[in-house]
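subagent[fold] <- orchestrator: predict structure for attached chain, return tokens only, no commentary.
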Amino acid sequence: MNVIAINGSPRKTWNTATLLQRALEGAESVGAQTEIIHLADLNFKGCISCFACKRKGSLNAGHCAVRDDLTNVLEKVLVADVLLIGSPIYFGNVTAGVRGFLERLLFSNLSYNERHESVFQGKLSSGFIYTMNVPEDFLKHVNYEENVFQNYKNMLQRLGGPSEFVISTDTYQFDDYSKYEASMFDVNHKAKVKAERFPIDCQKAFDMGAKLASSSI
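subagent[fold] -> orchestrator:
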């Protein structure tokens, strides 16, 4: 059982990374081997529309032809049992790094032939962890459920396995709010959410990791 986590946050030890680590701990609790990869460490681009993966007879079908720091990561993902992705929400969507990663992973496996959604022959379960500064009641106002969460779930399910997601809202962004121009935030409220609700989110991430790893055994 092999579980790969992709951290799409530029921070390696903050909210998104913490939740990903908890998800990996959940997977490890049922015997999985785990690894976390920080996209911020890699030099890569998104899809460049070369269409090498779509040429007839191409050896690149299902594999992105671009060679850069993401190449080995994509190959690891394709032979993994579970893919975990974590991303903060920036301006209503995942980070540019996560978007680029997904373009390269999913487009190379997307089929342009009729009656075939994907050329991927395996079964890759997936879990997505979203972190965001906005409060939970804001999600319905901007319809994140359909426009973001369900959208990526549907895309990832093209890889043959189930896909789930965990949402962590109203996150604590700074070590010391007094050092930043951020008067719109109630620091006491943020601290309370961090102390009371973030541990619950961590448990949800742990449970998701354990569930996905167990279902892939």
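orchestrator: received. Logging for downstream: The longest helix spans residues 198-215. The longest strand covers residues 160-168.
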